[in-house]
Write a structure and sequence with these properties.
With 503 residues, the chain is α/β, with parallel strands linked by helices. The protein has a domain of 258 residues: 3-Layer(aba) Sandwich (Aspartate Aminotransferase, domain 2), CATH 3.40.640.10. It contains 16 helices and twelve strands. The strands form three sheets. It has a seven-stranded mixed sheet with strand order 1-7-6-5-4-2-3, with helices on both faces. The protein has a three-stranded antiparallel sheet with strand order 10-12-11, covered by helices on one side. Helix 6 runs parallel beside helix 12. The longest helix has 37 residues. The N and C termini lie far apart (54 Å). 40% of the residues are buried. Bound molecules: pyridoxal-5'-phosphate. The site of pyridoxal-5'-phosphate has 14 residues, from helix 7.
């Protein structure tokens, strides 16, 4: 192990420790140069009441600018990001974020807007929010959109709250929500948080939902069906329209999980397929950096029937003597209330707006087409290495299993860990739950053909390694700062289902 050093090349290795900034602190070292205080300024400083001075801040590390910049730059290289390379995390849609979106989000009028700024002084920002609402409504075929929720999960919560409010308003005490067994865990969680019991609906052998299965479960006590289209196996729910009819015929509503909207942008609209309420993941479909707990935005679109229940405030366009103005409207007596302080994660709205405007309708459609083409290319090239649990042309992501590696003892987890050694972020693993040893790959539209080929070559290499030297994979990753955590017990444990099957 070598000593701590500042050599940039060493930052990628595993062989040294990065000291804390506190450990590098040297008395009197500073990262700024300011002129000496004059007498007046010294007097002003001395006049600060002592009870407002915080003693505990006296121990901050004392570092030069170089120390600070190098420390944080080195730390940043321990991480991975979409700016490093392919980040094929299925369902999460980690696409490249055009830098122009960042430039726009950093414009002082947006970035420095105060959350409590009165509407009269935030007209540009409110106009942007209003326009983004209209764009999302047009893209999705919904009537109204709220930008407030801070994540897809919170959007689901909001959507199901609106569904509950709608039924309660009509005096109907519905108690159940139907959810396909391929669903993301946040779907049953959102239903359960609203007091509903969850009824799982089995997917067919072809990986999609069939009208017969919905018909069998649909009853007068069902508040809603929640489904994801394309679903988490990457398939388009081609019976969507019929399924929505079945749910509506018994007075239920249809919730669309829009996390996979990037696959159908400009091609199909959830509203036209019978969806009554849906969330958008701005941070998946409409660029915006995410991951590592970074910011999210989960706007929710609704049909007019549900508009009275939208969270407040709603951005409204009002005609006045000086022309068109934008205001925050709180007058929604049936509103489910407020879901977020102030107005949500506004910076992400600016990025999404820039993304949508710079691509335009044709560009958005091309995003979907390229994402679908890329996923099918990977499915076709990787099917010799990994098993394909559900056959069929996919949309924007493809799901494999580790069944083909059974004889080697190598599992999906080992493949994922080995990919890290080759500089790739692993794909989503062990999800969806209905695929044993799942490996879920989403290339997005960001990748070039050569980039996809390099990824395929890497997986081919890894599958050779699995045959020749399985221990190499079981010990991976080898080139990272931290080695594998002891998660073997967790990985071998039977997969916990969100609702135990009846047997
Ligand atoms: C990501 C995702 C969610 C949840 O969205 P967050 O923004 O992470 O809260 C819900 N459903 C599906 C299918 C997802 O991929």
């Amino acid at each position: 192990m070598t000593a701590p050093n500042d050599n940039a090349n060493a930052t990628r290795g595993i062989s040294y420790e990065e000291p804390l900034s506190f450990e590098r602190s040297r008395p009197g070292r500073v990262g700024y140069s300011l002129p000496e205080l004059n007498a007046e300024e010294r007097a002003a400083l001395a006049a600060i009441p002592s009870d407002l001075l915080r003693e505990e801040l006296a121990d901050l590390p004392e570092l030069s600018e170089v120390d600070v910049i190098r420390h944080f730059t080195r730390l940043s290289t321990w991480n991975t990001s979409v700016d490093h390379g392919l980040y094929p995390l299925g369902s999460c849609t980690m696409k490249y974020n055009p830098k122009i979106n960042e430039v726009v989000a950093r414009l002082p009028g947006f970035a420095a807007a105060h959350p409590m700024q009165p509407a009269g002084l935030a007209q540009g920002l409110l106009r942007l929010c209003y326009m983004l609402e209209r764009q999302l409504a047009e893209i999705s075929g919904m009537d109204r959109v709220t930008l407030q929720p801070a994540a897809g999960a919170q959007g689901e919560l909001a959507g199901i709250m609106m569904i509950r409010a709608y039924h309660e308003q009509r005096g109907e005490g519905r108690t159940k929500v139907l959810i396909p067994d391929s669903a993301h865990g946040t779907n049953p969680a959102s239903a359960a948080l609203n007091g509903y019991s969850v009824v799982p609906i089995p997917s067919g052998d072809d990986g999609i939902l069939h009208p017969e299965a919905v018909e069998a479960a649909m009853a007068d006590d069902v508040a809603a069906l929640m489904l994801t289209n394309p679903n988490t196996l990457g398939f388009f729910e081609s019976h969507m329209v019929r399924i929505a009819e079945i749910v509506h015929s018994k007075g239920g509503l249809v919730y669309g999980d829009g996390a996979n909207l990037n696959a159908i942008l400009g091609v199909a609209r959830p509203g036209d397929l019978g969806i009554d309420v849906m969330h958008f993941n701005l941070h998946k479909t409409f660029s915006t950096p995410h991951g590592g707990g970074g910011p999210g935005a989960g706007p929710v679109g609704v049909v007019n029937q549900l508009a009275p229940y939208l969270p407040v405030p709603v951005v409204a366009k009002v005609a006045g003597p000086e022309g068109e103005r934008f205001a925050l409207d709180y007058e929604f007596p049936h509103s489910i209330g407020r879901l977020h302080a102030n107005f949500g994660n506004v910076g992400m709205m600016v990025r999404a707006f820039a993304y949508i405007r710079s691509l335009g309708p044709d560009g958005l459609r091309r995003c979907a087409e390229m994402a679908v083409l890329n996923a099918n290319y990977l499915q076709a090239r990787l099917r010799d290495i990994f098993s394909v649990p559900y056959e069929g042309a996919v949309m924007h992501e493809c799901v494999f299993s580790d069944k083909s590696l059974e004889a080697t003892g190598v599992t999906t987890l080992d493949v994922a860990k080995r990919l890290i050694d080759y500089g790739y972020h692993p794909p989503t693993i062990y999800f969806p739950l209905i695929v044993h040893g799942a490996l879920m790959i989403e290339p997005t539209e960001s990748e070039s053909l050569e980039g996809l080929d390099r990824f395929v070559e890497t997986l081919l290499t890894i599958s050779r390694e699995a045959q020749e030297d399985p221990e190499l994979l079981r010990g991976a990753p080898h080139n990272t700062r931290l080695r594998r955590l002891d998660e073997t017990q967790a990985a071998r444990r039977p997969i916990l289902r969100w609702q135990a099957p009846s047997d």
